[in-house]
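#onboarding

Welcome to the new folks! Below is a worked example of what a typical request in this channel looks like: someone posts a single protein sequence, and someone else replies with the predicted structure as tokens. Don't worry about understanding the tokens yet, we'll cover that in week two.

Example request:
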Amino acid sequence: MKIRTVLTVALLVMLVVSAPVSAVKPEDRDCINNQFAGFNPFIGLGISYIPSVFAVLEFYQTLTEDNRIGIVCDDVAKYRVKINVGPGEYDRIILTNYVRETGPWQSRANQNLIILPGQSLTESFYSEMAIYYAREGYCVYVLDRRETNVPVTETDFSCMANWTVDEYLNDTYYGVAVSRIHTALLNNNFNNNFDNNKNHFSYNKLAEKVEVAAIGHSHGALILTAYEASEYDDLFLGGVDKVVPVEIIIKYDPAFPELIQTQALQFEDISEKMENGTYNADNMGRMMQLASLASSDPEAESPVQPGLTNRQVFRLMASQTYMFSAYPYTPDYHYWSGDLGGLYYVDENRVLSAALAGGAVPYAPINLDLYMAGLMGNVDGYEIDSSGVDSPLLYVGLGGGFGNYGSWWYENEVGKTNKKVSSIIWNDQGHGSIALDYNSPELWSEINCWLESN
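Example response:
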């Protein structure tokens, strides 16, 4: 038996004991199928029969696809891991891994950093951020959610009716668990853990030794916070050791009843849409249309706002975003700071390129917006158990986005039981300024200093 096959089988055994996910190199699949023919990996390990575990083995071949894309800069390589999470056409998530290699399929990085994107944003939007952290020694993973698979031409969004928050927490668990396995594979950490004499695999949970930190942006921060407070974070291979929610409001300070009421109204609006059969939000799709006009014909008069050019309307949308929403999150909520003359802290051509060249997708499940509005609107049945958020936590607010409005719940509610909560409010740049701004690397550095000190 080849050593790579032995290592991969050991990894699979360890993972399926408690989690229905795995990741292997494609060329090892046939070997794994042969190894598991008539083989019960749990004999001799004192582990009871668990039907769901064996169901995983039955459809394992189609569960995960793991590919090396190649070097993207210097010694940083890119891998892509696709994980099927359901029977539907779009029921898959994608982990894009950036890591410093010592050779193909080899790395010494053993600290994982998972980035959970904002609504309708993809790994492409965060690629420079991911490369930065890879150069700092992390094995970085950007987790693209199910909606990133939905093409712009799609007209049937009934699949999104079942894309609930709990489904997304389950998907996140898959992402966390597989990231550990993939990192362990790259590090060949299982060389000394196949016991030929006893003819079974020693159950040492080596993949669990990989430390995992996570940065969530916007809706990604919402999912990260809910995940940290849930039972998924306590499952084998599912734990996240440090969390950095960026730009989210879980609950408003009660001193702002008008903002709470606004989100309660948004909750009612979204609920009505879902009752009438609308399951997708197309906010990003509309923004992509504005970006397309601003890019292709910048000086032409806008069909959306006569008297302004296409480029000016794009700038207005980016810098005065609250004007385009019936339910603004904060009084001056915006994506990037600027005015009709231009954006201040970011190259607007770069923003346009990111929106139109794969950094964004047009559709997202409205379920996530419902959950977010329910939390912020203090709707009965919508809450996150603050006492469950027990890992070291750094909240990052961007001054022109959620800013201090988002820090209140973490500092005052989570802080009651978690003494390792801190926050940073970063300038007055905007909700989207985590990734593309001229000085974004300064923020990444501050976050990294916190990660290293915790």
